[in-house]
Amino acid sequence: QVQLVESGGGSVQAGGSLRLSCAASGYTYPRYCMGWFRQAPGKEREGVATLNGDGSTSYADAVKGRFTISKDDAKNTLYLQMNSLKPEDTAMYSCAARWGRCPPVATMDPMNLYAYWGQGTQVTVSS
């Protein structure tokens, strides 16, 4: 059984940084597509970044140049380094996994395309 556990969220001021972690158990990263998603109150869940098993990455336009997705295979942990945070980045951030290649990061149906989800970690950015 695949389990994903996020950590690293918190409250920061605009311009600050946070690093989110997603610890995985029950499978090996190289065979899976991993993604970070976020959902703000009253808004749809949106893709933030994805990472294929071959190391290729994709980012939402809103975070390009500020966020970096990466993984540590030895620790079976996925990361999201978030720099130059903005108030509009405030949301619940969740990691997700699926077998095979990642769909486009801006997919409209992530809940049905990703089989495994973590519980989420809250990120709040104040101005």
> End-to-end distance, in Å?
40 Å
> How many strands appear in the DSSP assignment?
11
Q: H/E order of the elements? A: EEEEEEEEEHEE
Number of helices: 1
Considering DSSP H and I runs of 4 or more, what fraction of the residues is helical? under 10%
Oligomeric description of these chains: single chain
Low-pLDDT residue spans: none
Q: Shape, please?
A: globular
Per DSSP, what share of the residues sits in E-state strands of 2 or more residues? over 45%
Strand count, sense and barrel status of the largest sheet are: 7 strands, mixed
Mean of the pLDDT scores?
94
Structural class: mainly beta
Estimated radius of gyration: 13 Å
Descriptive labels:
single chain; 127 residues; mainly beta; seven-stranded mixed beta sheet; four-stranded antiparallel beta sheet; 1 helix; globular
Give a short summary of the structure.
By secondary structure, the protein is mainly beta. Helix content is 3%, strand content 50%.
How would you explain this protein's 3D organization?
There is one protein chain. The chain starts with a strand and ends with a strand. The mean pLDDT is 94. Strand 7 (67-72) and strand 8 form a beta hairpin. With 127 residues, it is mostly beta strands. It has one helix spanning 110-113; strands at residues 3-7, 10-13, 18-25, 32-39, 46-51, 57-59, 67-72, 77-82, 91-99, 116-117, 121-126. The strands form two sheets. Strands 2, 4, 5, 6, 9, 10 and 11 form a seven-stranded mixed beta sheet that branches. 3% of the residues lie in helices and 50% in strands.
